Amino acid sequence: MRVLVTGGAGFIGSHVVGALRDAGHRVSTIDNLHLAAHGPDAVPPTDVRIADVRDPRTVAEALHAVDVVVHHAAMVGMGVDLDDLPDYVSHNALGTAVLLSEMARAGTRRLVLASSMVVYGEGGYACDHHGPVHPGPRDPSDLVAGRYDPTCPTCGRPLTPRRVTEDAPLRPRSGYAATKVAQEHLADVWARELDAGAIALRYHNVYGPGMPRDTPYAGVAAIFRSSLEAGRPPAVFEDGGQLRDFIHVHDVARANVAAVAALADGDRHGLTAFNIASGEPRTVGDLAQGLVDAMGGPAPVVTGRFRPGDVRHIMADPDRARSDLGFRPTMPFPTGLREFARSPLRAAAGGHEGLQR
User: Fold this and answer.
1) Is the pLDDT of residue 352 over 50?
2) In whole angstroms, how far apart are CA 305 and each of 27, 99, 230, 356?
3) For a tag site, which of 25, 55, 122, 284 has the least CB within 10 Å?
4) 3-class secondary structure for the chain?
């Protein structure tokens, strides 16, 4: 198939481009080389067209003879402060709207959307007395006092974390998360209006070669690795017990290939979301210690610090991707960490502190 990958020069997008080509697809790529993702001295691969998905003319040109779009162009991460909101909305929501509008004009009826686990906010929880519950945002006074785990909104008792399914309510807790929800809603409207097929891949914590370091795009794995390379201990927020699902970027790229294959026959209609995750949750403390073991260096330091927009636990139920897309991760966490410890990262584009997710 002829595939257009937006954001194809980025961390995940570049791996997706390679995997699609390895699978025999003809791939074209556009990317605007945003400073936060690529740094000031980025040199794009020769096969990447420099273009912005907010520009209808260049998008229309890029869509010529394309069968499916794999949409990764976006600003990601928590950003710095609320001053970032216009940029997130512009790049993520407006950019997606322009892309979908031009896809409708071009007759392109297949879309794979790079979404995120941040659309869920907090993950799944259950109370022993009240069953499944959805806790609200954590109280800052509790966080200051070191009470990090959400409690039952009805009785105040401790909750048990559960795997979140794709049918969970969407409860974004940051500006970035709100724009990822907006992307999904826009794609859903587009698919229903055109009777088209769209797949949203909700990535959980992606790590691997080519991660950007020390930027709003930098995940916690890159932040910890940068600290160890500088001889500093990884600084773990809260108590290090936050549960996450870490998945290697090579597996994420394979999930995109599976999604394109699932759209190939044209029988899919509407938007379907899939968790793209390992199914093996780990704590942020586990990640820090695993990188120390792989790289050497000082032991992690648990700081007790927190960010109000962070969530406590989120771990995924991967069953829908396994049954519907035939996708199963293949990279074991210890192996992936050892590879990541030796892999090149992207140059820093600033000194911002990334979200521990």
Assistant:
1) no
2) 44, 39, 21, 11
3) 55
4) CEEEEECCCCHHHHHHHHHHHHCCCEEEEEECCCHHHHCCCCCCCCCEEECCCCCHHHHHHHCCCCCEEEECCCCCCCCCCHHHHHHHHHHHHHHHHHHHHHHHHHCCCEEEEEEEHHHHCCCEEEECCCEEECCCCCCHHHHHCCCCCCECCCCCCECEEEEECCCCCCCCCCHHHHHHHHHHHHHHHHHHHHCCEEEEEEECEEECCCCECCCCCCCHHHHHHHHHHCCCCCEECCCCCCEECEEEHHHHHHHHHHHHHHHCCCCCCEEEEEEECCCCCEEHHHHHHHHHHHHCCCCCEECCCCCCCCCCCCEECCHHHHHHHCCCCCCCHHHHHHHHHHCCCECCCCCCCCCCC
Contact 310, 284 (CB under 8 A): no
Largest separation between any pair of C-alpha atoms in the chain: 59
Range 135-162 average pLDDT: 94
Task: Give the predicted TM-score (pTM) of the model.
Answer: 0.93
- 1 half-sphere exposure, CB direction, 13 A CA radius: 25
The string of pLDDT tens digits covering residues 185-221 is: 999 999 999 999 999 999 999 999 988 876 655 689 9
Q: Report the pLDDT value the prediction gives residue 217, as an integer from 0 to 100.
A: 53
Per-residue pLDDT of 304-337, as tens digits, reads 999 877 899 999 999 999 999 999 999 999 999 9
CA R_g for the chain? 20
Q: Using N-to-C axis directions, what is the helix angle for 175-194 and 95-106, rounded to 10°?
A: 20
Residues 72 and 8 sit within 8 Å (Cβ to Cβ): yes
Tokens describing residue 73: 């162009």
> Which pair of tokens denotes residue 310?
């962070």
Q: Both tokens of residue 173?
A: 């807790």
Q: Measuring CA to CA, how many Å separate 261 from each of 25, 75, 78?
A: 10, 26, 32
Spatial CA neighbour of 191 closest among 257, 116, 272, 115 = 272
